[in-house]
Amino acid sequence: MDLSLASEKRLLKINELEELRDYAYERSRLYKEKTKKWHDQYIRNKSFKVGDKVFLFNSRLRLFSGKLKSKWSGPFVISKTTPYGSFELDADDNKFMVNGHRLKHYFCKEEVGVIK
User: Fold this and answer.
1) Which of 9, 46, 53, 114 is deepest in the core (most CB within 10 A)?
2) Model confidence over 23-73: pLDDT tens digits?
3) Which of 40, 39, 49, 41 shows the shortest CA–CA distance to 105?
4) How far does the chain reach from its first CA to its final CA, in angstroms?
5) CA dist 88 to 8, 27, 63, 81, Å?
6) Are 56 and 76 in contact (CB under 8 A)?
7) CA–CA separation, 55 vs 104, rounded Å?
8) What's the CATH number of domain 53-61+70-110, 2.30.30.10, 3.90.1170.20, 2.60.40.10, 3.40.50.970?
9) Is the distance from CB of 67 to CB of 55 less than 8 angstroms?
């Protein structure tokens, strides 16, 4: 067997392998873009204002939570907003900052309009 022929075959195989890897990378990128587009169309933007009542998701409750225990605590009142999606909550003279992804609106019966 000729060594130059073997080295040429090996070089062709390496180039073919790189082309397959590039193709797989491109297909993976397209799949991720499609998945992100599909996911983002179902995301609802939550807008909170100062004075709104909100519930706070308690992420530390997961370890020892009971089956029926709620993971949401509150209601809290928003006292300050920042342009980066974090909010300052007011709870009995305690103020703390939280990320907006951990909040959801609190609607009491008067705001919804439910009659007893």
Assistant:
1) 53
2) 999 999 999 999 999 998 887 777 888 988 999 888 765 555 666 777 888
3) 49
4) 93
5) 67, 43, 26, 6
6) yes
7) 5
8) 2.30.30.10
9) no
